[in-house]
Write a structure and sequence with these properties.
The complex is a heterodimer of chains A (304) and B (304). Chain A is mostly helical and 304 residues long. Chain A has one domain: ABC transporter involved in vitamin B12 uptake, BtuC. The radius of gyration of chain A is 20 Å and the shape is globular. Chain A starts with a helix and ends in a 29-residue tail after the last helix. Chain B is mainly α and 304 residues long. Chain B has one domain. Chain B contains 12 helices and 2 strands. In chain B, strands 1-2 form a two-stranded antiparallel sheet. Classes of the chains: A mainly alpha (304), B mainly alpha (304). At the A-B interface, helix 6, helix 11 and helix 13 of A face helix 3, helix 4, helix 10 and helix 12 of B.
């Protein structure tokens, strides 16, 4: 409870004591935005941590070996993640629903267990040191980038691209018959998601002095998926709210001498998803249970 | 090499048992029950607690442990699945609610220390424990340089008998016919007078009980019982197994279990232990890209 009390009474002090938490929220929000793009275009892709790993390792390795500036490192890491996204997307995007999800899990596990842990330059299982990290100064870049990414996503979903994605998500056959090039728009969504995840990964590595190879596995992807679904994937603000909510939840339920945080967090997860299956920021306003007189919207439109 | 193949058969049996529960629920509900790995762990943990802390015989402990898993199946259905079905939530929402339940179960066992609120369930916290060696006789034979331990050898007949019984039930009994009808088309099944909800309850309970059996066998054969055995060893491998065999196919899950065991052992022999896990997921990835219906998945329902 101290947490909320401090936020309300002393925002400046809150900012300085919880800078790292706020940066973590920012990174998680970017990942949630990356997950949002694929969900919005009707693809249940769980590949985000793989692209994060590519962005993180690329930018740290470049900084360590060539002493290049951060902006260039981030750019190369992001672009490389996008290129890998393109290569992986070509075979994988023919799959749908839970099959796509499992194939992308196969991709991230093969990448982290098969490549990262076996290539000497990544430091294998020991991880990679990043002496040029800047945990406190990085927060401005994180928050600035987050605002830009969210704005771009929001514009994209309102434009031609967004309409195509929405059509594909709701009914692929109908979208196809309207002359929408499904493969192309799905690929665009997948690559944008890879770029955002790669950027978030690179940025996250700038906040830590150490790149931990175990960070980029399935638990991470499940966490990001939870952000997006719990927040609601109808528009880009849902996943960001989900990331905010779930990243701060452990802090809120942190009570001295109380070790059951995960029990409470799991229970809250179930309660929220059962009462708001469309997500926190979803249709139906903020009503927890839809009243009987509320107009029935068309069928549920999340993929899966 | 011979010993390695034997180990592949033992661990493959456990994979198969675990994956059959996974695939049963997926076949009937089209939902991945991510709490399955937590139920698997709970089966092993409760059996261990009953033997060590409550001084029950192993047989009694097994029956109670499997029973507890079956009850957990009821919890999965009534807490995580049914409320969402009632609200016609997209399948992805059920993914999140089962993740929430898995989080609770793992955290409850993890926090089980003397003096904590979960001490009645488990007292070893996050440690890895093993069944006491004198609990059941464990004769060991040496044939042709191979070591055969009874506790491992029994896994194979137990798995095969359970699978044959399950195959008989699904193929020839009234319950099995109902289950297949619900898997085919729940709406049509309910119009034919089937109690769909009851079928789903029975399916989830059966699946969870099988998961419990797999957990106990895992604890017995690998001498490793901890809150994390399900999450770390079986959750993603179970996915790989049901994909290799074909989603929703029971013979496929059995074949996939043994196949994954063999692939892992071959990778271990050929590439060394570092690459082992990565190869399994590369196989999964290739399988999905080349033959998404899996080995036995002739009845893949094309969704477009």
């Amino acid at each position: 409870m101290d947490f909320i009390l401090q936020l309300l009474t002393d925002p400046v002090g809150f900012y300085s004591t919880h800078t790292l938490l706020i940066a973590e929220i920012g990174i998680n929000s970017m990942l949630a935005a990356s997950m949002f793009v694929v969900l919005y275009s009707g693809q249940l892709s769980l590949a985000a941590p793989g692209f994060m790993a590519i962005g993180a390792y690329t930018s740290v390795l470049m900084g360590n070996y060539w002493n290049t500036p951060l902006a260039l490192n981030l750019l190369v890491g992001t672009l490389l993640a996008g290129v890998v996204g393109l290569i992986v997307g070509l075979p994988v995007l023919r799959l749908r629903g839970v099959f796509l999800a499992i194939a992308t899990i196969g991709f991230i596990e093969a990448l982290s267990l098969g490549v990262i842990l076996n290539v000497p330059i990544t430091g294998e299982g020991l991880g990679l040191k990043n002496p040029s990290a800047d945990p406190l100064g990085g927060i401005n870049i994180v928050l600035g980038s987050l605002a830009v990414i969210v704005f771009l996503m929001w514009r994209l979903t309102k434009g031609r691209l967004g309409h195509a994605w929405e059509a594909i998500r709701q009914d692929e056959l109908a979208a196809l018959s309207q002359g929408i090039n499904i493969a192309r728009y799905k690929m665009i969504g997948f690559v944008i998601s890879a770029l955002v995840a790669g950027y978030a990964g690179g940025l996250e590595s700038h906040l830590n002095f150490f790149v931990d190879p175990t960070e980029y596995g399935v638990p991470r992807t499940v966490q990001v998926l939870t952000f997006a679904v719990l927040g609601g994937s109808g528009n880009v603000f849902g996943p960001v709210v989900g990331a905010l909510f779930l990243t701060t939840l452990p802090e809120i339920v942190r009570v001295p001498n109380f070790d059951y945080r995960d029990v409470i967090a799991g229970a809250i997860l179930i309660v929220v998803i059962v009462f708001r299956p469309q997500g926190i920021v979803g249709r139906g306003g903020l009503a927890i249970v839809r009243p009987r007189w509320w107009p029935r919207t068309s069928r549920a439109s999340s993929p899966g | 090499m011979g010993q390695q193949v034997l180990n592949a058969i033992f661990i493959g049996s456990i994979y198969a048992l675990f994956a059959v529960g996974y695939t049963l629920v997926f076949g009937v509900l089209d939902i991945l029950n991510l709490a399955h790995s937590a139920v698997f762990m709970l089966g092993a943990a409760i059996t261990y607690s009953l033997v060590v802390n409550y001084h029950q015989s192993f047989a009694v402990a097994c029956v109670l442990g499997i029973g507890a898993c079956a009850v957990m199946g009821l919890v999965i259905e009534y807490v995580c699945l049914r409320p969402l079905r009632r609200r016609r939530a997209p399948p992805i929402a059920a993914l999140i609610s089962t993740i929430g339940l898995a989080l609770i179960i793992v955290a409850a066992v993890e926090q089980g220390r003397p003096g904590s609120a979960f001490a009645w369930l488990w007292v070893d916290g996050a440690n890895s424990v093993r069944f006491p060696p004198d609990m059941i006789p464990n004769p060991t034979w040496h044939v042709d340089g191979l070591t055969l331990e009874a506790t491992k050898v029994v896994i194979v007949p137990i798995t095969l008998v359970l699978m044959l019984v399950l195959g008989y039930v699904i193929r020839f009994t009234q319950f099995g016919r109902g289950l297949r009808a619900v898997a085919e088309n729940p709406r049509a099944a309910s119009l034919m007078g089937l109690d769909v909800d009851r079928m789903i309850v029975l399916t989830v309970v059966l699946s969870s009980a099988l998961g419990g059996v797999a957990g106990i066998l895992f604890g017995l054969a690998l001498s490793d019982i901890s809150p994390y055995i399900g999450r770390d060893s079986l959750e993603i491998r179970g996915l790989a197994v049901i994909v290799l065999g074909g989603m929703g196919s029971i013979p496929g899950a059995v074949a996939g279990g043994y196949l994954l065991g063999l692939i892992e052992v071959l990778a271990l022999v050929v590439f060394g232990s570092n690459v082992r896990a990565g190869v399994a997921f590369a196989a999964l990835f290739l399988m999905l890209v080349l033959r998404p219906q899996g080995l036995f998945g002739a009845q893949l329902r094309e969704r477009l």
